[in-house]
Amino acid sequence: MEKKTIAQARIDVADVIRGLAVLGIVLLHSLEHFNFYSYPKTESLWLQFSNSAIWDSATFLLAGKAYGIFALLFGFSYYIQDSRMQEKGTDFRLRFLWRLLLLFLWGQINAAFFTAEVLVLYSIVGFVLPLFARCSNRTILIAAAIMMLQPIELAELLYALFNPEYTAPAPLDAGYWGPIFDVQNSGTFLEIVKMNLWEGQLASLAWAWENARFFQTPALFLLGMWIGRQKLFCYSGKNMLTWITVAGCSIALFFPLNALSPMLKEFMANKAAAGSATLIISSLAKFSFMMFLVSGIVLLYYLSPLKRLLSKMAVYGRMSLTCYITQSIIGSFIFYNWGLHYVCDFTRSLLVGIAIFAVQYIFARWWFKSHKQGPLEYIWKKATWIGKN
Predict the structure, then answer these.
(1) Largest CA distance in the chain
(2) Nearest Cα to Cα of residue 227 among 23, 84, 14, 5
(3) Second label for 253, Cα 20 to 30 Å away, from 13, 98, 202, 245?
(4) Chain CA centroid to CA 225, Å
(5) Cβ–Cβ under 8 Å, residues 317 and 14
(6) Per-residue b/e over 120-150, b at no fewer than 16 CB within 10 Å?
(7) End-to-end Cα distance, the chain
(8) What is the pLDDT of residues 289-310, one digit of tens each?
(9) In sequence order, which residues have a C-beta less than 8 Å from that of residue 245 and are 6 or more positions away?
(10) What is the pLDDT of residue 168?
């Protein structure tokens, strides 16, 4: 039997990681009521404890990490697609730019229901992948490292340190969330869609800019592409040692970075500098923990008895676009005024997220019995190659 190259073979562990990331996203978004932060007060001490434990645990494990894994695998998927086309003698880079435009349209559909979606951001910064696709591994890692260090925020930090009178401008997204909340709380479906597609998109992109996503996201894209080049998701003794090293280094970096981040605003007199430094350090802390999670999943998949259990998540990861968009539709229907307008605490919100995942997972299992791709993935692929003979 002919041995498949990494570009030809499907890397199951990547689908497992992607599936777990999408699960993390739906659970976190459910706790946030899909960016509609409306919760009842409770007198029950048990529920107060449960709510606090669930929220603190979820934000620690998932906030900024599930999205980061999703972005990392976006870059990895690009590498697989680009390599496959190179083997066929086709340059995928221009076609990928068209694919990004299609992703922008998918993002508009998603944004109509959910204000904090990431597909539009992906479509904007995704050009870095074809731009660096023919560069050396060293160049890719240097570019990723520069972007991960937040160059604009770093420049603002240095400027603030040398200019103590400098005051950071007000957040770009500050004026948007109040009106958006009001429409989510009392608006009709059409009013919510109208708000989401304009003010909601501006708020989401402004928030992404204020929270280090415009540089961290393309850095993760490039890192994912580099991981694909190194074939690190394939099993080998060398790769397992690499992932063990990544896990150890990541967790060793996370604890001091995570501890330092909340201290900066308290101990730095220059508040503008403290804000920039906090953003840089906190984004690096989240990145470190995200890499610990990725390495941990890879090691558990290949080196533990949990492989069979983890493998069941691959089917969910293969339908990530479909699941990501439909969770926004379902979630906004459950929590927003145009649907059920369900007001609940974190404990019940978590149960809602688990229920959404369960429905999607059952559908994915059923769908792949007779299809090779998820429904939206199939449409995206067909549209990507439109006009290709």
Answers:
(1) 70
(2) 14
(3) 13
(4) 16
(5) yes
(6) bbbbbbbebbbebbeeeeeebeebbeebbeb
(7) 30
(8) 999 999 999 999 999 999 999 9
(9) none
(10) 86
Pair of tokens at residue 91 = 């340059």
Cα–chain center distance at 202: 18
| DSSP-assigned letter for residue 38 | -
45-62 and 12-31 helices cross at what angle (nearest 10)?
140
pLDDT of residue 81: 95
The helix/strand/coil state of 89 is coil
Query: What are the structure tokens assigned to 206, written together?
Result: 């402004």
The upper half-sphere exposure of residue 39, i.e. CA atoms within 13 Å in the direction of its Cβ, equals: 20
pLDDT of residue 10: 59
In angstroms, the CA 336 to CA 339 distance is: 6
Q: What is the pLDDT of residues 64-114, one digit of tens each?
A: 999 999 999 999 999 999 999 999 999 999 999 999 999 999 999 999 999
Alpha-carbon dihedral 292, 15, 61, 353, rounded to 10 degrees: -170
Q: HEC states along 92-127?
A: CHHHHHHHHHHHHHHHHHHHCCCCCCCHHHHHHHCC
**Rounded Cα distance, 212 and 190, in Å:** 32
Domain ranges of the chain: 12-384
Instruction: Evaluate whether 244 touches 118 at the Cβ level (below 8 Å).
Output: no
Residue pair 115/36 in contact by the 8 Å Cβ criterion: no
List phi, psi (to 5°) of 187.
-80, 160
Distance CA 365, CA 359 (A): 10
Residues of the chain with pLDDT under 70: 1-10, 389
Among all chains, which residue has been given the structure tokens 């968009």? Answer: 325
User: CA 100 → CA 94, 97, 201, distances in Å?
Assistant: 10, 5, 17
